[in-house]
Design goal:
The chain is an all-alpha fold. The protein has 14 helices and no strands.
């Protein structure tokens, strides 16, 4: 078999193959992967300063000498205790209601599923104050559901500790649902199918196979849910009010302290900042570790 010979130009140089671009003449610039263009350095540094400097200022301006004494103040302890109880209770409600909802979105096929998934995420982008107003219209004493809770069971949620828990659960549940939904959709369903072929019931498959596979997503969603509930402000003050010892959580105490005692507001803000950093440390492997 005769192989095609390479054509040569009249001057002896190899002729360019048709369709292949000619090599560029001149100096070739060296490119290193990960190098940053000079024009992006200044905006990147300004963006970093914009995000970090306020947090650094909070730490630098904190009254470290009186930190412990301010944290021991009865009003501060009451707000901290209520915040922890309400956030934990709201997270429990989100786990009970959110895991089945996430399973429904991830494993069921029905008309309007995509719309329902989008609807679940609305509280993420909804202004918290609007969420509080919506809760008042539905669960208030004269609301669509609240009027029956009041007349049938004598239960009134607005401006109570229970109202704080409801408001926090409303704004925090989407974080749990999204995390669990993603974990369920990414899980290998062959294990569930194998359990079904062995005669396991759907409920047993859910408890013994599905939940263990989605456990990392559930844990991450629960931590995010708890942190979001702990920092909730707008829906809480709108739906539950700001009554010390009953509905005043840490963010509300910060807002109130800014008017009378800014140093205490800084101390309370430091506590919330420490909680946020702790959440990021806990979730570092799942949420902020770069992918290879």
């Amino acid at each position: 078999m005769n192989l095609p010979t390479r054509r040569r130009a009249p001057n002896g140089a190899a002729a360019r193959t048709p369709g292949r671009p000619a090599p560029r003449s001149g100096k070739r610039r060296n490119y290193r992967a990960g190098s940053i263009p000079a024009l992006l350095v200044i905006p990147a540094v300004l963006g970093l300063a914009f995000l970090v400097l306020p947090l650094a200022g909070l730490v630098l301006e904190a009254p470290w000498g009186t930190l412990l004494s301010r944290l021991a103040d009865p009003a501060v302890l009451a707000a901290l205790r209520l915040s922890l109880i309400a956030a934990t209770s709201a997270t429990g409600i989100c786990l009970v209601l959110g895991i089945p909802l996430a399973w429904l979105l991830a494993r069921s096929e029905f008309p309007g599923r995509r719309f329902l998934r989008a609807l679940v995420t609305v509280p993420l982008v909804l202004p918290p104050v609007v969420g509080g107003v919506a809760l008042l219209l539905v669960l208030g004493r004269n609301g669509l559901v609240g009027q029956y809770l009041q007349s049938w069971f004598g239960v009134s949620l607005p401006f109570t500790t229970a109202g704080v828990i409801v408001a926090e659960a409303f704004v925090a549940m989407p974080f749990l649902v999204i995390a669990v939904d993603g974990a369920l959709r990414g899980a290998d369903r062959r294990f569930e199918e194998a359990a079904a072929t062995l005669g396991a019931s759907r409920w047993r498959i859910f408890r013994k196979v599905t939940l263990p596979m989605a456990a990392p997503g559930i844990a991450a969603g629960a931590v995010l849910c708890w942190a979001r509930a702990l920092g909730e402000f707008g829906a809480t003050i709108t739906f539950a009010g700001n009554f010390p010892g009953e509905t005043q959580t840490m963010p509300l105490a910060v807002y109130l302290a800014l008017e009378s005692d800014p140093q205490t507001a800084i101390v309370l803000s430091l506590v919330l900042l420490a909680v946020s950093v702790a959440v990021l440390v806990i979730l570092r492997d799942k949420w902020i570790r770069p992918t290879s």
